[in-house]
Design brief:
Elements (H helix, E strand, L loop, with lengths): L9 H11 L13 H7 L10 E7 L2 E6 L7 E5 L2 E4 L2 H7 L4 H4 L2 H4 L1 E12 L9 E3 L8 E6 H4 L9 E7 L4 H4 L4 H15 L7 E15 L4 H11 L6 E4 L8 H21 L4
Parallel strand pairs: 4-10
Antiparallel strand pairs: 1-2, 2-3, 5-8, 5-9, 6-7, 7-8
Length: 272
């Protein structure tokens, strides 16, 4: 979750053990963007059109959006799944706050700061990821070996590392230049794998101001209480990265659950 254990619920560690220990990693072929591209191919997509309000009407919901050209856009639907981060969901539908309860004040997001490093050589190490304690590196908390996740990530014989920085040190690292961050990541990766020295051939730095929910102590209790209050018959359903331990799998699960609730309500007029 891009921060150190002292800031995270102990439940997160047991979840990590249960989900990752001794298991194989499943990764999407052709890159993660193939999933949203496949979804978008079946939908009418409006880019650069942020939603600004959502309100319930007699026969469904009405969404107000603001296209880049400045003309207001009204979208009408039988129902709506708010698949956003929690702050955006509550900004669009503030009447959901009583259902969300304490989670609205308890949940905070960690920033994301990642450096991708591509090398012309591939080390023999078969690991897919390295979790680092603060005693190993003050700034870096996680390194993914992307070339071991899926062979289509890199050309044959090359390697790709994703180096994630710790939220605790992001006040210092976030404003650093891309070159400074590249050097911090490359120094450590090449310390672990000396055969990669002088083999770096690409890098990319990514910054996300709100990247991932921080599961601090008390967050999972608030999540459980929120789930108990949500109305499965509501035509406005929540889905997002804050329903359980963070991950692509859990996001898909709770998105599907919200969609099934909406479909059941519209077809049957009763709760699932």
């Amino acid at each position: 979750v891009m921060t150190r254990a002292s800031r995270v619920s102990a439940l997160e560690w047991f979840s990590t053990l249960g989900n990752l220990a001794g298991r194989e990693m499943i990764s999407i072929q052709n890159g993660n963007d193939s999933l949203p591209e496949a979804l978008a191919s079946t939908l009418e997509v409006h880019l650069q059109t942020p939603a600004t309000a959502l309100r319930r009407v007699e026969d469904g919901v009405e969404i107000t959006a603001s296209p880049a050209d400045g003309s207001p856009l009204q979208l009408h639907a039988d129902a709506c799944v708010l698949a956003t981060r929690l702050p955006e969901a509550l900004a669009l539908a503030p009447d959901l706050r009583p259902q969300v309860g304490a989670l609205a004040d308890t949940l905070h997001y960690n920033r994301g700061l990642a450096v991708q490093l591509g090398y012309k050589r591939r080390p023999a190490c078969p690991a897919i990821g390295l979790l680092l304690g603060a005693v190993e590196h003050e700034d870096i908390g996680l390194i993914w070996l992307e070339h071991n996740k899926n062979p289509d990530r890199v050309p044959p014989g090359h390697s790709l590392f994703s180096v994630y920085f710790d939220e605790v040190t992001n006040d210092r690292n976030y404003p650093a230049s891309d070159e400074q961050l590249r050097d911090i990541g490359a120094r450590y990766v090449e310390q672990l794998f000396p055969e990669l020295q002088s083999q770096l051939d690409l890098y990319q730095v990514s910054r996300w101001p709100m990247a991932i929910p921080n599961p601090a102590p008390g967050v999972y209790r608030a999540v459980h209480q929120m789930k108990a209050r949500l109305d499965p018959r509501d035509r406005v359903q929540l889905a997002g990265d804050y329903f359980t331990c963070v991950g692509q799998n859990s996001a898909i699960h709770y998105g599907r659950l919200a969609a099934e609730r909406v479909l059941h309500t519209l077809r049957k007029g009763s709760s699932p």
